[in-house]
Every structure is written in C-alpha cells, then in structure tokens.
Design brief:
This protein is an alpha+beta fold. The protein has six helices and eight strands. The protein has helices at residues 18-25, 28-31, 43-55, 104-119, 134-143, 172-182, and strands at residues 3-4, 9-11, 60-67, 71-82, 87-94, 124-130, 147-158, 161-171. It has an eight-stranded mixed β-sheet. The longest helix is centred in the middle third of the chain and has 16 residues, at 104-119.
C-alpha cells in the first residue's frame, strides 16, 4: 500500500531504486548529520536491505519518498513498532540538496504521521537527531509539531568532536492539534 501526501508518495523500495539508494548509502556528506554509525555498503548489501525491508512489514517499514516530477528523492521510516504500547520510531532522509526547502520533507512527515496515527492507530512517534543538525531539529519542532523530549550528552562522534543526541516525539493528539492549527490537510 502506498501512502499519499499532497506532494509525495511513500512506497516500498523496488529493485529499480537500488542504484540510487546505494549511492546515498555511501555519501559521507549526507550521513554526517544523520543518526547512527555508518559504514560503506556494497551494492549487494543495498540489494539485501531492499529485500529485507520489503519482506518484514510487521517489524516496521522503510518507504521510498517519490515526487512525481523528480522520482525517488529520499526515504522515510516507521520502525521499531511497539504494537502493545502503540508507538514507533521515525526517521527521514532527503537525498538531493536541491530538493530541500520545496515542501517534500514536510509532506513526507505529515503523510507518515497521518498513516501512523489514523490508519495504524499508533499513539506516539519518536525520533533522534544529531544536535549539530539544527535545521532538522527546527524542521521537526517548528514545521511538524514535534517536541524536544530529551538530550543524551556526547552521544555521537562526528568530525573529531562529540555531539548530543536530541530526542523528539509527537503524540497523536499533538499531531491533530498541529494539523488544526496549521490547516495542513485542509489547505
């Protein structure tokens, strides 16, 4: 099932995406401000990653973000789903710098939140960011309605120095309040 926003569609990764996903997975500039430790991946690793995410829907899902005029532009995840407590982890990556600031990111997050809260019945979503990535922190907290819920000091080692992990989250009620306040889906 595809998830539709106003500008983007979130869909399962396909074999035709492997070349682009492989390129992004090995782009050090792209991963410098993303959460997690990153190693170089060969094409076979990317192929296995696509195969595994496509076949494990109950563990969560990584979606490809597709914009009609650009094709594949990034990925968005809804993983580590805790069905009993109705929460999950979310992350997003837009691949090309030239695509940022055009509304694709916000539409991806809103589409995924709507799906998580309205379709899956989840109660909250969590995310994590590298503290030096202020653009992402501001994007989630100001544009998407998330709140900073905590900080883990000196969590990430980047470029010879330590950065904090910023923990953000949003509940279904806060999402609905933010939608009402901004008119996102009605505009």
């Amino acid at each position: 099932m595809n998830i539709r926003g106003k500008k983007v569609t979130l869909r399962a990764p396909e074999p035709s995406d492997i070349a682009q996903l492989h390129e992004w997975s090995n782009d050090p500039e792209l991963w410098a401000n993303l959460v997690g430790w990153h190693f170089a991946y060969n094409r076979a690793s990317t192929e296995r990653w696509v195969e595994n995410w496509s076949s494990e829907p109950h563990a969560g899902k990584v979606y490809c973000i597709e914009a009609p005029e650009h094709g594949l532009i990034g990925t968005a995840s809804l993983v580590d789903i805790d069905w009993r407590n109705r929460n999950a982890f979310h992350g997003m990556m837009l691949g090309g710098k030239q695509l940022r600031g055009q509304g694709f990111g916000i539409d991806s997050v809103f589409a995924l939140m709507r799906y998580a809260f309205d379709e899956l019945g989840l109660h909250r979503l969590d995310g994590e960011m590298v503290s030096r990535n202020q653009r992402s922190i501001d994007f989630y907290t100001e544009s998407c309605g998330w709140e900073i819920e905590g900080r883990k000091r000196h969590w990430f080692y980047r470029d010879g120095g330590w950065c904090d992990k910023v923990i953000v989250g949003i509940t279904s009620a806060r999402y609905r309040e933010h939608c009402d306040r901004t008119g996102y889906w009605s505009a």
